[in-house]
Amino acid sequence: MKNLLLIITLGFLTSCTSTRYFLNDENQDKKYLVNYIKDLDGEITEKPLIIIDGFAYDYESLKVNKIPLSKDEIHKLDYLSKDSKGAINIYGERGKNGVVLILSKKSQERLQEKSAATLNNSKVLFLIGDKEISQEDLNRINPNDIESIEVIKEKESVSKFTSKDYDGVVIININSRISNAQLPTNRNSA
Hints:
The chain has helices at about 1-20, 30-40, 85-90, 105-120, 135-140, 155-160; strands at about 50, 55, 75-80, 100-105, 125-130, 130-135, 145-150, 170-175. By secondary structure, it is α/β, with parallel strands linked by helices.
């Protein structure tokens, strides 16, 4: 009888804890975050700090506030392990149980728009190796063909690549399996 009572009590406590991490969905998707947290067993505790687009929701605040997202609104989930230096350095004592980082699709779209606007307002020299390319050429490159990208912002370093007035240089290194004939090139470059 005592064992049955203990099992019922533990089941009740576990279900109460889990409901704090339910999403706004009506179906099984509401448990999406709960399942993510359970899958990280050992990496974070069952009471992690939740960060949604930079806003913090700790375990106690989720007793009153519901997580304001549905599964379809989530762009990316990530985490910082319990007791990790990163979690504690960034979030203090609140990060000791681990941190679940959520980026919403809406926030991701805003970041992309802001990033594109910044790039469009800057004068940037794009290079594949040592060959200048236009932004249109850059947009035609298959991302899978890119081996690495180097961004240079310091004026002194930029001047090593051009005598023109650029805000920065982006050097794209292409996989060696790609031939020069396959690459877009700026026909007007020197």
